[in-house]
Structure formats: structure tokens, C-alpha cells
User: Fold these one by one.
Assistant:
Number 1:
Amino acid sequence: MNILITGANGQLGNEMRILSAEHPQHTYIFSDVIVPEDSPVTIHPLDITDGEAVSSFVREQNIDLIVNCAAYTNVDKAEDDEATALKINADAVSNLGRTGAKIIHVSTDYVFSGEACVPYREDDPVAPNTAYGRTKYAGEKALLAVCPDAIIIRTAWLYSEFGKNFVKTMIQLGKSKTELGVVYDQIGSPTYALDLAEVIFAAIEAPEWHAGIYHFTNEGVCSWYDFTIAIHQMYNTMAADSYDDAITCNVRPIRSEEYAYRTPRPHYSVLDKAKIKNTFGIAIEHWADALTTCMLNLCSDL
């Protein structure tokens, strides 16, 4: 197949690029709205909010399957500019769905209210309470309206070696601050982008195409506070050559109301993954094991 990976410069797009080498039976075309000069592969400039440009590109490249890794993910900025977020998270997704190619699209836990106390199943009622969540849910609806056999994978707490994310930020803050407050009353499951990329390839390589909505994160649950403690402990084990190099920042557990969020965050983001495990016959790593892999890669580059 000819497979288009949109959002190729992002966390997931980069992991898809790396894993594509393990699936050489396919031809991969990478695209993004901005093309970096130092990209290790050819990335085609493509604005997926431009419906005509998308249709022409897919036709010219003879695309069979699109993996949409592109999204507007800045939760706070989306509140100020919901129109732009909607254009990228919904209108662009509709453009991709109208091409006739098969689609695997990545969505988010933010489509739910975040007020549950048991893991969210795919068929649980959605209730987004942020602009970001509303636009991502609008994208799901728009895609299924024009491409009902699409695969949609909702995920949460994504991180990787690439781009800006919580893991890299906590390392930087841990090294630059003497004290850091991190919320302990928001619970979820971190997701290593490499593991998400692997499950996307599992869907691509499955003997049959299994359309529908799925949930994927790493196994286990934690708070942002727990996650930060694990990040700092792993950094000190893997990267610190001496006490002077170690992260000694005091991390304090704080409540959400003590942190100046401009936009409310979900208090509970745990997703039920039984459907994706049963459908594609996959085993999912615990978040601490996945974090160990990511930290080893990050620390080897320091």
C-alpha cells in the first residue's frame, strides 16, 4: 500500500516514521504543514485544511491509507481560538475522509467529561467541556459521516523523545528549579508514542480491516505527581553521573485548584483498552516500563 502519514513532524508522526522501516512492504509518504530543513526523510508540505490540496495530493500519490497524526493540541489556546482548532481538528479530518482512502485517525480522552471513576469505554457518552475536546469530538463525527469504515483511536497523556511533552518538561524543570508543585488529583495513563505507533501498525497489518472507535494508552494508572516522581528517579539513575548532575528538586503534590490552569483538565482520564486488545490480539506495556524505554533513549542523547 501507499500510506500517507500526516503530522509527520509531531511526536506520533516521528514514531511512525521510525517504525515504518520495519514494514518495508509498504511505501510511506510523509506530510506536514511545515517542513523542517533537517528532516531525515522527505516530508511533503501539505495543508490538510485545504480540501482541494488534500484531494489532489492523495490522487497524485495514489494513497491507499491515511494515518492522521496531525492535530491542534494546545488546550489553552484552543479556548481563545476555537475556530482554528475546529478547522484543524474537524474540517481537515473531514477533508481526509472524503478522499476515498482508508483512514486511521487519532483522537483524545478529552471527548469525555473527565468526571468518571471507572475507565471509559468506547461507547460511553461523550461530554467534552473544553474547546479542544469539542473540536476533537467534532472531528470524530465529521470523519464517520464521510468515512464510516474509519478507525479512530482515542489516547491520552502522550509523550515521546520528540517535540514538547510532559516528560521533557519535567526533566527541564527538575533541573532548573529547587521546588516544583505537581497535581496529584488528576488520574490517567501515560502513553508512549512509540507504543501507540506499534498498535497503529497492528491495525494496518491485521488480516481484516476492523473499523470502529478504540481506546489506547499504556497499562496502569497514576497521577501527574506520580508520573513526575518516576521521571526524576529514572533520570537520576540513567543520566546523572554525579550528585551535581542529579535532579534534586523537591516535588510537592498539589491539588488542581492550586495550579493556575486557564482551562479545566479532566480529573479522570483512564481509558478501557479491552476492545483494542481483543480485536488486534495485542499486549500493552505498563506505563512505567514504557517510560523506562523512552528515558533510556532520551538520556542516551544527553
Number 2:
Amino acid sequence: MKPARAILIYTLLVVVTGALLAPWLFWAVQATGWEPLTRHPFRRVFNRAVMVTALLGLWPLARALGIRSWSDLGYPRRADWWRDLCAGILLGVASLALGWVVAGKTLDFAAGKYSLPSLMGKLVLTATLVSLIEETFFRGVLQGGLQRSLRWPVACAVTSVIYSALHFLKPRVQIPADAVTWWSGFEALRQVVHGALVTPGVGLAFVSLVFVGWVLGWTFARTKALYLPMGLHAGWVLGNEFVQHYRGGNLVQEPLVWPVVLVTGWLALRWIELKRTGTSDSSMSGAR
């Protein structure tokens, strides 16, 4: 099956199956009578239904795209994988700090809800999980699969648009528990699309995340591995969540950050070239 067709079928199945499953899952949760579960609104149950459906379909999708090993997925065995990961984290954090300065943001440290050690532990865990899950799915599966039939710039562009769009697809309106019907999952989908279109700042944030997705996809295509883009992603999440925690604003809605993201991509590519040059020089020295 062609990669684009496989991804389209996967998307449709996830959306439709998740929407159909959500009401029944919600009713099952309510039937337990257990307050820690029954207090969750339909919106959250809908999100979980879609996520579970997406996860269950991920392996069949990977197989349909020709992904047969960890190396195919973007995790080749490399002794220096940790260098790319660490370089990406440093570049990500440094670029977010620069973007924060360029955008003229300030932080309100009195607004912090956690002590600094607790906050950093929470942010590191969030950055690790988000970068691991999103890079594996968007770059490893989607872009990697599309690159099997498309040139990498096209595959990267398509993946970047999908990556950006999915960040805004969240239900905005609550559906009361007594109003949930078998059709409520599709009503939640309508709310998702409507909310994404009318939320202030979505246009700017969408473009920002397209740039972010492009840089991540670019580094993935050049290294044929997820280590460097995963590090960049983790660094960006870490920096952005830190700024938001102290009410410094959401940097993805700042156009001034766009050139910073692109310069970060250029620096990441310079890192790749320096590594290749160093490896080549070491090989030549060993040959002598």
C-alpha cells in the first residue's frame, strides 16, 4: 500500500473509531460509580478514546509503511547517539531563551506554583515524554513512511503541517453527562474543528509550529535518526513550559521567534557537518 494512502486510511479509522467508541467508554466509566473516574468530563474521555485508538493502530500503520525495525523507525544503533541528543537539548533551550529575549518577555517568579526542583522534575518528565512520543510518531512513522515514496522536502512539509494542525485539535465546549448520546463523539469532533478555527492566535501559532516541524524533520532527514530532533524537541518543550509556568507568555504565538527557530535549524545542520568532518578526520588518522 502506498504510504500516503495508508496514512489517510489510518487517520480516518482513528477519527471515526474514536468518535464511536467515546460515548460507550464514557457510559462504562459512569457505570462504575467510582468518583475518581466518574468526575472526568466527556471531553477527556473523548480524548482518551482517540489516543487509545491511535496507539492501537500505530503498529499496523508502521507495518503498512514498511517499517520493520527500530532502525527503520529512526533508532539506529550508534555509539554517539547521546551526543546528538545532548546537542539538540542545548540548542533547543538556548534558542528558546534567545526567543524569549527577542520577544521582550518578562517572568513573574512570584506566580510559580512549585519549588524550582519540583518544577524542573515535572518539566523534564514532560519534555521527555512529549519529545519521545511525538518524534517517534511524526518523524519516525509519518515522515519516515512518506519518504519511502516522496522526496524528503515534500514528506517533511506534509508532516510539518499535520504536526502543527494536530496541536490545535482539542474540544473547547463541554458536553453535559446527561446529554451524551452515541453521536456525541462526532459533536466533539465538530467542536474540535470549530475551536481550532476561532481561537485567538491560532494562525500565528500554526505557522510557528510548521517552522518547528520543518526544522525537526530537516534534521531527521539529514541524520536518518531521531536523536537530534528529539533533543531539539525536548529543549523547546522544556524552555516553553518554563516560561509559561512563570507567566512569560506562549512563545509559539510570537512571529519574532520564527527567525530564531530557523537559525536553530541552521546551527543543528552545522553540528551535523562538524560531526561528519570530525569522523572523517579520525578515520583518515587511523588509516595512517
Number 3:
Amino acid sequence: MNKANKLRELLATNKLTKIVGAHNGVSAKLVERAGFDGVWASGLEISASYGIPDASLISMNQFLEAARSMNEVIDIPIVADCDTGYGNALNVMYMVKRYEEAGIAGVSIEEKKFPKDNSLLAGGRQELLRVEEFEGKIEAAKAAQKNSDFMIIARIEALIAGWGQEEAQMRAHRYAEAGADAILIHSKSSDPGEVLEFINNWDLDLPLVLVPTNYPSLTEKDIVEMGKVKLVIYANHGLRAAIKAMENIFAKIKNDGGIYDLDGLIDPVSHVFELQGVPEMKEHERKFLK
């Protein structure tokens, strides 16, 4: 069973599928070990790992290589955050080909103009494409895929842009008709009310996807009870936790004038070796180095 098929099967069940953001092999392994269903190759996390804004500044190949490096060391499926698709409909076709070849289970593309600003950025540019242009991107993506299980998720940014519920519903329906396999409805409101309104009004038998970063009060129990949401993405919490931990440790080393008091605050190097697969490597050495 390939990973795209795994993802399809997960979304076909009555359970809520839960995936978590990552940006490299180690963070992807930690998501898998925590017991989640899949990994979100987060555009924000990957951009941040380069120390630059999430604003279409790095190339498709850089995002793709990050997703590929994660996919190669885990057994759970990856959904890749592919921003606006890295260009027009022709770019989207090339993107789908490359991501599918890399073993990625699905991609999410959003209806914003290139270059984009992060959806949660205060004061960010949230300019949307014409509906027809994004429909063309969805159609192109579906035409380009070879594996029928590979998923194209259409990310609705109308609520992010402040264009309202009617516009969001219209766009979501149009993208569903264009062939999208799921609809990600995004919101930057701290109250889940506008997302709940969208879900309540959704009348198609197509799975919905949520990213509750800004409205954490909406629990998995609440989401399951609505019945229409099949996938929830915890998009960037690993990166934010790592940043906080590193800032605290670096400050402690600076203030202490050394590393003599870090026991219990950081993992031993042996755990890093284990995450890297060093025990397996040494076993292979014993077997095959002659």
C-alpha cells in the first residue's frame, strides 16, 4: 500500500485524521513516534528553518527536498503545504508530478496570488485569484497526477481575506466541481464561530480540513461531532516548541557561563543517535562490512 492510498483510507473512516507540522526528518520522526496519522510538510516551518519569511521566497525544489527528506524516514503519509502551487496552472502540473514522484500522499494549494503572505500574518497581503484561475489550477493538478489516490486539497482563503461566508462557500463549491479531493477552510479568527458557520452550511459530500492554529478552543471532540471534517492539521506547534526550548537553553548557557547545569533539561546525545538510526547503521556494518 502506498502512502497516498493510506491517506485515502484514513479519510474514508469515521475517525478524525490528525497530522502535525514538521520541516525535517527528525521532526517528522517525532510526529510519527507520537502516534499521529501523518505529517504536514509545513510551508511556515520549512521557510522558518531557512530563517526567512513564509512569503514565497524559497523555491519549489527547496520545499520539495524538505518534504522528500521527511518522507524517506517515516512510514506515515505526508501532506505537503504547496502555497499557491509555485506559479500558474502549468507550474502546478509540474509540481504535482514532482511531489507524486517523491512519494508524497497529497498537496494543498491555496487560492492566493503569488507571491503570498502567511495567512496568519497581521497586516499581511491576502489577495485572492479569480475563481476561474484557481479552478484551472485544480483541474491541471488532477490532470497531472498519475496515482488516482494522490490528493489535491483546495485551501479556501476567502475568510482570511475578509470576503465573507457567501464568497467562501461559492469558491469551495467551484473548486469541488473542478475536482478537488478535499476543502481546507482557513480562518485567522480567534473564535471558531466563522469556521463553524462554514461547516454547518457545507452541503457537499467532500471532506473538510481544518487548521485550528488561531482557534485552539475547538477540540477534537467538537470537530468529530460536526461530522463533516475528516482531517485536522496542527500546523506549526513543533517548530514553536523547539524555538522556545532553544531560546531558553541558549539563554541559560550564556547566563551560567557554561553547560555544567543542563542535565535533565536537554536530551542525551544517545537519543539523537537513536533518532538518526545509528543503531541500525551499526548493525548493517556488522553484517555487511567485510
Number 4:
Amino acid sequence: MTTILVTGSHGQLGNEMQQAAKRFPDFNYIYTDIEDLDICDKVALQAFVKANKVNIIVNCAAYTAVDKAEDDVELCYRINRDAVQNLGEVAYENGLKVVHVSTDYVFDGTNYMPYTEDQPVCPATVYGKSKLAGEQALLGSCNQIVILRTAWLYSSFGNNFVKTMMKLGIERDSINVVFDQIGSPTYAADLADTILKVLSHETFVPGIYHFSDEGVCSWYDFTKTIHRIAGITCDVRPIDTKDYPARTPRPQYSVLNKAKIKTTYGIVIPHWEDSLVKCIEILKTKV
């Protein structure tokens, strides 16, 4: 049986991978996080892969604190670039496949049409630059790789925008939310399913692919929809990006073109509102 090593298993996507695995029983799964396996340590990674007869690595580990990364540059690059380089080298040396998750932050967000995989990259933040460096390190070290860029990720696990807006909506009478940043909310469960569909496909076609849920909205629209579905009554007020203090710039436009992954792997992608309903139903059971 094919063995998949899932790194970063305690995060949003890592947890969703564990749920998705139940729907893809034809693989053997090994879940690790920093306390089990430090992927920054190539020797330890090499030994782990050999000892456990790993065939595929799905890398869900990442440094994702966008603002904090501006001060924590060394650690950000260590996780988002150097560890990914290790994964690529170990995969190449052992004949493994790698699926690695990247981000819309490799673009600067100034576009007005959905980004395709072959458009020029131009990250504007330390986080974005470190993730791009990770992509380049992987592309330069291994040929059996799929890089999945995604955006606006949320889940019933971990800390994320959906949970924050539900909490604030309950605690406050009104909140201000940016309305001039546009993207596609993406349920991490949908991304996890897509990763396993790619790995289950009859042919493995390496390359960079974009994945997010269908449809677009602003953070303001997203919040209004979260509250409507969750039954929260709170006055949500739209504000400009310039009126919301943030350490680092956020992409104004984060919409990704998914035609390549749909065509190559036959992926059918749900609309973000439909997936949001599923996530909020789960969150209600956790209260």
C-alpha cells in the first residue's frame, strides 16, 4: 500500500487531511508535526522516510503569521524555504512524489483578472517571498512535485477568519471589515480532498496548480455571509483597506484561475458559500 507522509498535521490543513483520509482508504497515512519530525533537519527526515517506507510527502507545514514574519525573517525562511528544500532533496534521492501547498501571496495582488500559474510572481511581503523561495527550492530539487497555491483558507480546526468573525459577531454589537480586498474563501477540507484526488488520479502530472473554492467576494461580504449562516446579528460595517491598520500589505485581489487543475485532474470545485455552510455546521457542534 502507498504510504503518504503528512507534515504539519496539527494545522488547519493537516487536520483536514486526517478527516479526508477516511474517504481515501487506499493509502497508508503517517501524520507528523514538529514534535514528531523536524523537517528542517534533513538527516532526520531522510532516516524517517527510509524507516517508514514513505512513497509520497504532502507538506502542510508552513510559517503563516504574515505580520510576525516581518520580524521573524530567519525562522520564516527556515520553515518555508529551507525545510521545503530538504523535502525536495530527500524526495529526489528516494524516488518520492511531493505535494506542497503554497499561497496567493507569491503575487502582489494588483491584478484585476484571476491569476494563472504562468503569470509573473512578485511577492510584497516576507511571508510571500519565503513561500516563493520554497516553491523555487522544490522545483530545483525534485521533478515529481505538485505545488498547490491556495488562498483565504479556513477550517473548523485552528485559528482563522471564520472563527474570529463568529466570535466577534457574538461579542460585539458592530464590527468594521475591509470591503476592497477581493478573493475566494477556501475550505481546507476541499483542499485536502483535492490533494488526495490528485494523488489518486491515474496519472501524476507535475507542476504548479491553483486551487481555491469557486466564486469571489470581499472580506466584508464574507463576514456578512458567515453571520447570516451562523444566525449572528451584528452590524458589519464596510471600511477601506487604508482605514484598517496592518503591519504588512494584503493583496487587493487574490482570485486564482483554477482551469489548469480542473482540466488536468478533473477536479470539481464547490462554491465557497456551500462549503462555508458545511464548516459552520461542524463549528456549531463544537460549541
